[in-house]
């Protein structure tokens, strides 16, 4: 029976070593889990940012389409078409007037030259 304390001590020492190993493994797993959680949190934030960006893009596209529709509606109104036709007539009148003025200026210049 004199051997019992030696065996008990050896068993206790082995248990302590095993426990230290388990503690070390648990710590390593903890570090890995913390890193993984951090990675997942970053992924989640990026995913939320992409989602928000996509939602904003969709909203802008809807706003743009709505604005295009409004412009088309205004452009296609009869009164706008009438104004456009009137503007074209006015532009044509200005062009004719400019052409007449040019011809008159050339004639005046020619007359001045003949008098000299």
Automatic annotation (TrEMBL):
Keywords, alphabetical: Coiled coil
Coiled coil: 23-50
The name this protein goes by in its record: Uncharacterized protein
Species annotation: Micromonas pusilla (Picoplanktonic green alga)
Keyword match Coiled coil: yes
Domain of life per record: Eukaryota
